[in-house]
Design a protein that fits this description.
Helices cover 61% and strands 12% of the residues. It is α+β, with helices and mostly antiparallel strands. Strands 1-3-2 form a three-stranded antiparallel beta sheet.
Length: 105
Amino acid sequence: MSRLPTSKRRQEPEQIAGRRLSKLQKRIRCWLDAEERRTHRIFISSHQQLVQALPHAKGNISHSLRLLEGRGLVEIGRSPGGQAENVRLTSAGCQKASELAESYD
């Protein structure tokens, strides 16, 4: 009986977990999608508005945004000092947000 090396078996759950989104990340995506639909995708949402709209700590929201950016779901516009100024969904993020919205209907 051939067995997979231990390292191969351990990577599998990590890869699956890497695709999951936290509740906060889902809320961020839904909020961004709703804002972009409301403004007909003309305006970019400000980071400050997002922080004020969600009942979470700013640090947690910023961390989740960086993770979403790393996955290619959002783009974060930064000031010359490196602070997040605006946030918008990428085309992949829009697609995932609409799939998520459909699952709630």
